[in-house]
Write a structure and sequence with these properties.
alpha+beta, Beta-Lactamase, 5-stranded mixed beta sheet, 21% strand, binds adenosine-5'-diphosphate, binds magnesium ion, transferase, EC 2.7.13.3
Length: 361
Amino acid sequence: MDIERALREVAVLVARGGEPGEVFDALSEQAAKVCGVGAGAVVRFTGRAAELVGRWGDLARETLPPGMSFALDGGGALTLVRETGLPARFDDYAVAVGAMGVTLRPTGLRASAAAPVTVEGSVWGALIVSAFDSETLPVDTEERLTEFTELAAVAVAGADAHERLLESRARLVKTADDERRRLERNLHDGAQQRLVSARLALRMLRKQFDDPAPVDAILDELGKAHEELRELARGLHPAALSRGLGAAIGALATRSSVPVEYDVVDERFPEELEIAVYYVASEALTNAAKHAEASVVSVTVLVIDGALVLEVADDGRGGAVAGGGSGLIGLSDRVEALRGRLRVTSPVGVGTTVRAEFPLP
Ligand SMILES: Nc1ncnc2c1ncn2[C@@H]1O[C@H](COP(=O)(O)OP(=O)(O)O)[C@@H](O)[C@H]1O
Ligand SMILES: [Mg+2]
């Protein structure tokens, strides 16, 4: 098989940010085919062992399940790569000792060549191709492997960077949430309490006036200020969430100017998930009231195939675009930080559906 084409196929997967396992399987397959042998694998070195993170080959598939670990004690190609950081080959498993020989002898694999996958200057793992009894490993096998191992390193670094990006987004969302909670507490313990005391004091004072009308006007203003503060605090951190998503969405429904029908699973989830579902529902309901001219909105929160799924659908004018305002775009950060997905479908004249899906731990 043409090496350029094989490399290109894997490179496309890497560039697309495919799952590392998928990339490693493809790498194993293409590298084995380029060398004209029946099996290939990518391993990751962990301490004194190698963990199989990608593989190809019909026979090897049955004997070497993904995720399997084996000790590196037999002096085979992988052991050599691990010890020297250089490509290596091993020509006869029939004489191999240790766990490696025991694992591989029954598979009919006879010889292997392996090359290191180096990430940030250290040996992360290796790509190995293996020949069955009837096959021979070409003399330049190790050289052919080198370009594949560079792709493997890019895939590893990419997956790592992606993971770090997700973690940093999650940290940002958490910091913002902690800050909101702190503000909510300060409002509640500080400004709101003071307003309550001021209103009480003024009510006492009111009795001393012949004409209390001006005092009533002030009391009225103070009352409104108190109500606005309470609204603000509620938006900062939804107190109803402490009683679960059903209660919190119920509270949103009660305050909505458009009728809301809702069906919420009666289960508790990790706090950050519940907060995310709440904010998405809250924004989608606000949008439905503000932009949609809808007659009814439905909210469902269900567990489907191991994912927590929120759907908010209205029967309004449609035509919503994420990025058209500040609301929907801000939510996707929150959802994606939890490895979820946010989708808005909004055909004109039919209505808008906002769907958020979160994988459950
Ligand atoms: N349910 C909806 N029905 C119709 N239009 C919507 C709906 N939701 C959002 N939109 C449109 O999409 C835009 C983007 O929404 P959003 O990001 O929430 O911004 P905004 O801050 O304006 O609410 C809105 O400005 C509005 O024009
Ligand atoms: Mg909005």
